[in-house]
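Please, structure for the following, as tokens.
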Amino acid sequence: METTLLRNYLSTVYELPTVNGPIRASLDGDVVTDASTLPELLTKPFAVLTAYNPRSMLLPRKVNDGRHLVLRDLLILGCYRVESSVGFEEEPEGTWREPAWLVHAMDRDEAVAFGRVFRQNTILMCKNARPELIVTDPTCDDVGRTIVGNWRVRA
């Protein structure tokens, strides 16, 4: 995977819903030695999936929105608890925002399959309080290659 693309993925800020309000976190933090210091959501297994802009190809908003709703419907039909989330650039001049679905307790292999079907470069998984960026597009890298990050909770 291209270094710049990987760096962008690791620094993406995810706004994730919780009972106490949204939390913002990225994958570019320092090693967390005590998971109990993290917000509860970040210690539980989940996936973050999107259907927007397959293979980084910008699509019209209407097309992206339609793909995203199909993804949500398929996840719900699969009996997953799904909540709306978003990934974005934190830079003040950054304009990129991409809606995503937080999928609770999803299996890694199934999440990778959804990423492949919707032609995403990567998906985000949380396992054992550690975020994992998993390649799902064979044109980026080997499918299943995992880049393990560390949560960085943003204010």
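The longest strand covers residues 97-104. The radius of gyration is 15 Å.
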